[in-house]
């Protein structure tokens, strides 16, 4: 899994959930969101909170990864990144944390993690994986990417007016084949759909936060104060 940079506007509080998605008679979607989280910040948390309101998600499982296959190795240790994730969501009932990827010593391939969740919840329970628009654009580079929709839905954080064309006609055809515009449908099948959520996105990246911290610049509006305190206490991102 990758820790994607997310860009855009501030998330409003008045995003209403889809009426059908929030119906108590529909199956609960198990949703996962993975990343390096080096460190976790509002660009991770706010879009996912908005997505949860739109789709009617009851819980999102955060998956900090150990060895990202397509990115430089994290600056903070696995344990430090896990502790920061836990601090960031400790008072937010929407989020919980899963450590299975941190317990691996091999690269964290999304498809393998999804298969492990699928085995646990059964073949018929709706399972969804949350990604950013940038990840959708490069998803054909992921390990066994063709198997993803055989295991889960993809929930893509996007915004109105964003370019939705993928890199090749073949990828665009794949996207159009699986795309749905109604969140309710996600709970009616265990996997196979792509949903683009019109969530406002934040122009925040972990790379920028690390750089700003090294330069002594304020990061108060970029991540929770508990994370800033942790970073300072453990002298992270000072090189």
TrEMBL record:
Pathway(s) the chain acts in: Cofactor biosynthesis; NAD(+) biosynthesis; deamido-NAD(+) from nicotinate D-ribonucleotide: step 1/1
Similarity comment text for this entry: Belongs to the NadD family.
EC number: 2.7.7.18
Region ranges (Disordered): 1-23
Gene Ontology molecular functions: nicotinate-nucleotide adenylyltransferase activity
Species for this entry: Xenorhabdus santafensis
Residue ranges constituting the Cytidyltransferase-like domain according to the UniProt record: 32-211
Record keywords, A-Z: ATP-binding, NAD, Nucleotide-binding, Nucleotidyltransferase, Pyridine nucleotide biosynthesis, Transferase
SUPFAM superfamilies in alphabetical order: Nucleotidylyl transferase
Protein name stated in the entry: Probable nicotinate-nucleotide adenylyltransferase
Domain of life of the source: Bacteria
The organism's taxonomic lineage, starting at the top: Bacteria, Pseudomonadati, Pseudomonadota, Gammaproteobacteria, Enterobacterales
Name of the gene: nadD
HAMAP family: NaMN_adenylyltr (MF_00244)
Function of the protein: Catalyzes the reversible adenylation of nicotinate mononucleotide (NaMN) to nicotinic acid adenine dinucleotide (NaAD).
Top-level enzyme category: transferase
């Amino acid at each position: 899994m990758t820790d994607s940079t997310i860009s855009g506007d501030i998330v409003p509080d008045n995003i209403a959930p889809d009426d059908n998605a929030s119906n108590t008679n529909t199956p609960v979607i198990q949703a996962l969101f993975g990343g390096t989280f080096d460190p976790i910040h509002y660009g991770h948390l706010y879009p996912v909170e908005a997505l949860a309101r739109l789709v009617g998600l009851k819980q999102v499982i955060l998956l900090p990864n150990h060895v990202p296959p397509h990115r430089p190795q994290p600056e903070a240790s696995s344990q430090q990144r896990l502790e920061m994730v836990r601090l960031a969501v400790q008072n937010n009932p929407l989020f919980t944390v899963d450590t299975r990827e941190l317990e691996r010593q091999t690269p964290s391939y999304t498809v393998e993690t999804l298969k492990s969740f699928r085995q646990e919840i059964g073949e018929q329970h709706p399972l969804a994986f949350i990604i950013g628009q940038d990840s959708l654009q490069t998803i054909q580079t992921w390990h066994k990417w063709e198997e993803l929709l055989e295991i889960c839905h993809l929930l893509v954080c996007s915004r109105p007016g964003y370019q939705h064309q993928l890199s090749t006609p073949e990828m665009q055809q794949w996207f159009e084949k699986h795309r749905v515009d109604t969140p309710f449908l996600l709970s009616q099948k265990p996997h196979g759909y792509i949903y683009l959520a019109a969530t406002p996105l934040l122009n925040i990246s972990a790379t920028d936060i690390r750089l700003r911290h090294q330069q002594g610049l304020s990061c108060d509006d970029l991540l929770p104060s508990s994370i800033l305190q942790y970073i300072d206490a453990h002298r992270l991102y000072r090189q």
